[in-house]
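Query structure, 292 C-alpha cells:
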C-alpha cells in the first residue's frame, strides 16, 4: 500500500482472508464490516477516532460488501461499508430482520483502476475492449495491440461490491440488466490484495481494484469511454472532475439512525479530518454538499 497505517490498539481486527462473518458483535465494541476496498480506510478512521476517544473500541473486518450487508441483516455489525449501493431487496431484508429502515451515508469516492504488469506495453483500452476481455471474447494481448500472449483475466469474487460495479459498468457497458457475464476463463479472486499480488507477478495478467491499492508494482491503464475519445488515467483529480469513466461512490450503511458513538464515528468519517484521511489513503474526498 502507498500509505500504511500502523495500529496501536489490538481491538482493531483485520480479517481479509479468514472468516469475517464469524466475528460476533459485542455491545462494547463498534463493529464495522464489509467492503475490502474500504477496509484500510475504515481501519485508518478507526485508529484516529480511538486516539481521540480512548473509551471507544472499534473492530474492522473485510470480506466484501455482501458480507457487510449480511452482517447488517443478522445483527452482527453496527456499520456496513459498501463499495456499491444496497439493493432494494437487501434493504427490505434489513428492515424485516431489525424492524429499522436502512440509512445510507456517502463517505468517499473511488477511482477503480484497471491494472496490468509494468512490462505490458498496452497503455490504454476502451470500455468495449475491456468488456471483450472480461467476457472472454478476446483472449490474447495481440488482439488489442500487445504481444501474442494469452491474457490472464482477474476479477473480484461475486460477493464483492467491486465485482458488481465492474460487471454493470464495464462488462455490461453501463447497462446493468445487460446479458454479458464474466467469461469462464476469468479467475475470481478473494480480495483486492490478491489481485494486486497476482498482477505483480504475472506479466500477462489484467485486473481491477480501488485506486488505493495501486503501487509502483502495477501499471494503470488509461480508459476510453469510446474509441473516438481520449483515454483517462485513474487519479483523485480525474475522479473528482468525473473525466475518468470508472469512478464510484463509497457508502456506510446502518440499520436505523445511528446513535451514540456510532453516530460520532460516522460524523467523523464525513468531517474535514475524516476526509483528510480519505485523501491520505488515495481515495477521493467528498466535495461540498456531497454528504448524505
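Result returned for the query:
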Amino acid at each position: 500500500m502507498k500509505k500504511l497505517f500502523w495500529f496501536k490498539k489490538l481491538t482493531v481486527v483485520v480479517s481479509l482472508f479468514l472468516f469475517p462473518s464469524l466475528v460476533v458483535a459485542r455491545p462494547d465494541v463498534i463493529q464495522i464490516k464489509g467492503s475490502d476496498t474500504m477496509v484500510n480506510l475504515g481501519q485508518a478512521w478507526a485508529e484516529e477516532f480511538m486516539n481521540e476517544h480512548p473509551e471507544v473500541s472499534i473492530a474492522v473486518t473485510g470480506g466484501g460488501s455482501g458480507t457487510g450487508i449480511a452482517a447488517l441483516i443478522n445483527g452482527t455489525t453496527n456499520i456496513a461499508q459498501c463499495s456499491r449501493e444496497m439493493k432494494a431487496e437487501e434493504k427490505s431484508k434489513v428492515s424485516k430482520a431489525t424492524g429499522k429502515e436502512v440509512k445510507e451515508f456517502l463517505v468517499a469516492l473511488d477511482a477503480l483502476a484497471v491494472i496490468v504488469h509494468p512490462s505490458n506495453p498496452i497503455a490504454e483500452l476502451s470500455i468495449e475492449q475491456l468488456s471483450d476481455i472480461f467476457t472472454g471474447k478476446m483472449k490474447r494481448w495481440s488482439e488489442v495491440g500487445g504481444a501474442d500472449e494469452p491474457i490472464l483475466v482477474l476479477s473480484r469474487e461475486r460477493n464483492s461490491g467491486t465485482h458488481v460495479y465492474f460487471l454493470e459498468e464495464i462488462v455490461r457497458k453501463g447497462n446493468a440488466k445487460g446479458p454479458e457475464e464474466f467469461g469462464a476463463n476469468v479467475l475470481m479472486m478473494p480480495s483486492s490484495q490478491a489481485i494486486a499480488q497476482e498482477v505483480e507477478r504475472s506479466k500477462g495478467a489484467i485486473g481491477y481494484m480501488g485506486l488505493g491499492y495501486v503501487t509502483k508494482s502495477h501499471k494503470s491503464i488509461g480508459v476510453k469511454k469510446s474509441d473516438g475519445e481520449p483515454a483517462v488515467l485513474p487519479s483523485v483529480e480525474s475522479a473528482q472532475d468525473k473525466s475518468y469513466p470508472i469512478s464510484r461512490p463509497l457508502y456506510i450503511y446502518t440499520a436505523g439512525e445511528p446513535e451514540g458513538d456510532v453516530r460520532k464515528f460516522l460524523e467523523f468519517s464525513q468531517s474535514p479530518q475524516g476526509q483528510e484521511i480519505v485523501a491520505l489513503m488515495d481515495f477521493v474526498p467528498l466535495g461540498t454538499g456531497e454528504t448524505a
